[in-house]
Design goal:
The protein folds into two domains: 86 residues, no CATH class; 168 residues, Vaccinia Virus protein VP39 (Rossmann fold). The protein contains nine helices and eleven strands. With 280 residues, the protein is α/β, with parallel strands linked by helices.
């Protein structure tokens, strides 16, 4: 069983790079595949659970998806409000919550919407945006709108914490006409063996990387899924935060307390409002 992207796939990097387009949503159109692919990724989950406990909650999570982080946070006894643009992923999370214990369900609130625009009318001691959520913001104005929403939702002494993958020169320099193969996997919905390979295309002016994944099942027609990520460089992120009202900006490495350096894969950023103590 396969799922079509929520938005038709236009096919080229020139046609992608807008919040909510196929490059932003298609990767999340198959929750079963997403869960299988990232189910063993736990180091970031453990990190966010740890800081959520420290904050005592409630926590606002942008890019909640189908709950990989939020369910663990709620399971640790901390209330979490999650926002996501993918209705498919939120529907899957709602099914998971319905099948779980009532106490867990009572700690999770969900909102469908664009993280640049959603206003909840309340503040949180901790706001998080895990697993490259910011890489689905492509233009300067996208970041300005999103950071304004974060500041509206932060308590005066609250922290905003997120992570992003450091751009890898090897990925950015790959031949966009070449497909790179990967081991086959068994699709969780159909139980069918599927071969997949990837192609990388980088627009150096827009700093946009398109990863196209091609799935080829043993039977049936192949299909492709695009994933577009804005490539953010650490000093660029620091400047965006500084000029959009954040201070006390700290970078750590790969969900540890170690300062980020040239060997960091995922940079974890923690910051607060520069208007600390205000009630704007």
């Amino acid at each position: 069983m396969t799922r079509k992207p929520e938005v038709p796939f236009p096919g080229t990097i020139e046609e992608l790079g807008t919040v909510g387009d196929a490059g932003a949503l298609a990767h999340y159109s198959d929750p079963a595949y997403y869960t299988k692919t990232y189910g063993k990724r736990r180091h970031d989950v453990e990190y966010y659970v740890r800081i959520a406990r420290k904050s005592r909650g409630p926590v606002l999570e942008y890019g909640v998806g189908n709950g990989r982080v939020a369910l663990a946070v709620a399971g640790a006894g901390v209330e979490v409000c999650g926002i996501d643009l993918s209705r498919t992923m939120l529907d899957d999370l709602e099914k998971r919550l319905a099948a779980g214990p009532p106490k867990l369900r009572s700690r999770v609130e969900l909102r469908h919407g664009d993280m640049r625009n959603v206003r909840l009318g309340r503040r949180f001691p901790l706001v998080i945006a895990p697993f490259n959520a910011l890489l689905h913001l492509y233009e300067r104005t996208d970041f300005e709108s999103f950071f304004a929403r974060v500041l509206e939702h932060l308590e005066p002494t609250g922290r905003f914490v997120f992570d992003f993958s450091i751009p890898q020169p090897d990925d950015l320099a790959r031949d966009p006409e070449r497909w790179f193969g990967a081991p086959r996997f068994r699709h969780p919905a159909s139980d069918e063996l599927v071969r997949y390979d990837e192609r990388f295309d980088y627009d150096q002016f827009r700093q946009l990387l398109l990863v196209t994944t091609r799935f080829t099942p043993e039977r049936g027609k192949p299909w492709t899924i695009p994933l577009t990520h804005r490539q953010l460089f650490p000093r660029e992120v620091e400047a965006l935060l500084h000029y959009n009202g954040f201070a006390d900006i700290e970078f750590t490495s790969d969900f540890t307390e170690t300062p980020a350096d040239r060997h960091t894969d995922s940079a974890v950023v923690s910051c607060r409002s520069a208007r600390r103590g205000s009630r704007a």
